[in-house]
Amino acid sequence: MRITNGMMVSRMMLNMNNNLRNMDKEQNDLSTGVKIHRPSDDPVLVARSLKIHTDIAENEQFTRNVDDAYSWLDKTETSLKELNNVLQRVRELSVQAANGVLNAEDTQKIQSEVEQLKEHMVKIGNDTYIGRHIFSGFKTDEKYLNDDGTVSLKDIGGQKIEYQVGVSAKTTVNVTGEQVFGTLVDVVDESGNAVVDGDGNPIKKNEMFKTMDDLIGAMKNGDSSKVSNLLGDLDKNIENLLQVRGEVGAKMNTVEVIKDRAEEMTLNFTSLLSKTEDTDMGEAVMKLNILESVYKASLSIGARVIQPTLVDFLR
């Protein structure tokens, strides 16, 4: 095989360009801080990087969901705590009204305060979180109670609002009005007949508000013995409320644990992504120095290959 000067020059230029290309790759890795610039650089690492990016985005969404879930539960806990304070005050007043030694004027004052406390309970029952009623089940755009304490929404006992807080994990954030205020009972008139609305449907109210109405009626009539008998019903309502508060508190603790785990997973994913994509600066600098030496050597050898001419051979 005949080796010509042109062949030598072409091969020399090809090798020199390869050396320059390798050196440019290391310089690019150092300047950008990442070692993957296109799928052809390393298809396996590119696929892993895309999966990690997806996991990070998914986990960030879970973290936002956890924050929303915790805020909802925190608002619920605040409302339940306020409702508990109201019931405790109602009980104190009821004990005073049940002792049988108060005159009519004092009983009337207690009755007036209990009526105001009932109005406040209605406002608590219609509490909202960012414009959504927290005790109305799925119908968060509608209030749960009417102004008189009767139920505006019925049959919402099984309606659970859930947040996705993990790949296969959900948490329920709401408690319904029936859980908080007790089961529904018919509103009856003085004759004991069920009261109906304009559509002929029976009007309902929760057990807690039935107890409140019974207390107010007994105080209005000056019936201290009936007020005393109603203390047991009031205690049952308080006990139920404390149980619901306990469940909400347990959910808040669970959500906090999930949040800590989500934040830890984000750190782990970020660390793994860094190991997958980021340039190892020490290794890259060492490779660049080697490639630079190789390139300089190729330039030196190339100068010797290109240098000879016909005149050099005629001397």
TrEMBL record:
Transmembrane regions listed in the UniProt entry: none
GO molecular function: structural molecule activity
Keyword annotations: Cell projection, Cilium, Flagellum
SUPFAM superfamilies, alphabetized: Phase 1 flagellin
Matches recorded under InterPro entries: Flagell_FlgL, Flagellin, Flagellin_N
Superkingdom classification of source: Bacteria
Any single GO CC term annotated in Swiss-Prot or TrEMBL for this entry: bacterial-type flagellum hook
GO BP term (any one): bacterial-type flagellum-dependent cell motility
Flagellin N-terminal domain segment(s): 5-140
The protein, known as: Flagellar hook-associated protein 3
Biological source species: Peptoclostridium acidaminophilum DSM 3953
Record gene name: flgL
